[in-house]
Amino acid sequence: MRSLAFSGSLRSGSFNRKLLGNVIRAAEAQGMTVEHLDLRELALPIYDGDIEARGLPDGAKQFKEKITAADLLLIASPEYNSSISGALKNAIDWASRPPENPFKGKLGSLFATSPGPFGGVRGLFTTRQILTVLGVWVSPNQLILPHSHQAFNDDGTLKEAKVFDQISSILSEISSLRGTK
What is the pLDDT of residue 178? Predict the structure, then answer.
């Protein structure tokens, strides 16, 4: 299964980037081919119809191509003000521009962490809603990890093996759905 993994957080040391690193390790351990994409590398401007009228930015074209090539989207979505991050929403907006919708028919798996007690769940509601409208079959199982400031070792690995096992279980379940969605 070809997977595209990305985080909605742009900050280098973000907890969601650390979480995504663990998701990638778990996916690769299950034999998935994973491409990790850093949204910063796309250099996307804020969506603007005037810019779009002149042609999609190269980063938007690149993101669309990577989504098209993937079977599964692995997304670590931080919670910003109880919603999706602006960077993630902007990238999705650019990639979903007509005429083709690269999201349609893809599988999706969501992960979130935050220092607070809710673990980013409020941001996942919005992320799930957006992806579902675009035709992504988003797994009902998601990982929400509260107290992120206590969850990771210095090297970015998870302190608790049971959390890594939860990630592995979510990935195993969604990979078994390939072809049945």
Answer: 66
